[in-house]
Write a structure and sequence with these properties.
single chain; alpha/beta; Rossmann fold; 2 domains; seven-stranded mixed beta sheet; two-stranded antiparallel sheet; 13 helices; 9 strands; binds glutamine
Amino acid sequence: MTVRELFRKTVRTLRERGIPSPTREARLLLGKLLATSPARLYLFWDQRVPEEDERMLQALVEERLLGVPLQYVLGEWEFFSLPFRLRRGVFIPRVDTEAWVEEAVVLLHFLSGKRKQLVGCDLCCGSGVIGLSCAFFVPGLVLYGVDISEDAVALALENARFLGLEERVTFLVGDLFSPFASRSLTFDVILSNPPYVPVASWEKLEEGIRLYEPREALCGGEDGLEVIRRILREAPRFLREGGFLFIEHDPSQKEAVAELGEKSGLTYVRALRDYTGSIRASVLQLGRERECEFSSDATTPAFT
Ligand code: GLN
């Protein structure tokens, strides 16, 4: 069979079995098989596929048809234009997060010109996408990542090496800030995509997510705010004066985040929207330094 024939056959199979974007998925799966990007597939169009490779693709397609999320079948997923390895049992990065990470990168660049040494923390780091993207694009950043899952931390470390960032990043297993309590470490910026889905909403998520993604990475208790509450309570102890906390949450949780943050002595700086226009994250600050100000209604940060 040629690549073209195998591609068409794969699209057909995926479509018949109700996979929502069969063409896109087939392109990604064949791209993986041929170790090329989906956009370059056509270069191989008339090439014959060895039977062994055909069988390998068949195995991937079958996994997908069982309901395994595509990201796990591929074992690699792009985030913020960077390649990340991914495995079952570790949270799948969402495009919603990229939108606010972009703003964090801009802020970090601004701060790196102002502060001697810039230290950041990615709390609930999962595969490490948030912290590693920031470290990749902000050369002065020293980054710590924490996750309660050993699998996640091992994967984040692999990703750090994969991106050549291992000298500036440290990943630790622990419950939120616990690994830092004895190190007297404080941060210029804390970034977090904690679990925030209420139990009742989690139960309604699609089966592939419920079966294969770790519940603890998504589910934030009864009201979804259990972990967020703890982060907002503990963050001031681990932020430097003027330090920032970027925290992802459900659009409906913005008021709660602002209130909990202010109760804990943090200033609510601004809400950040995802690409659908929903408020998906908030920025809070310990104290309020003049050197850097996010205006509350800007779509991009304004520094004064
Ligand atoms: N955005 C994810 C979802 O709604 C949840 C992410 C999270 O809990 N951190 O599926």
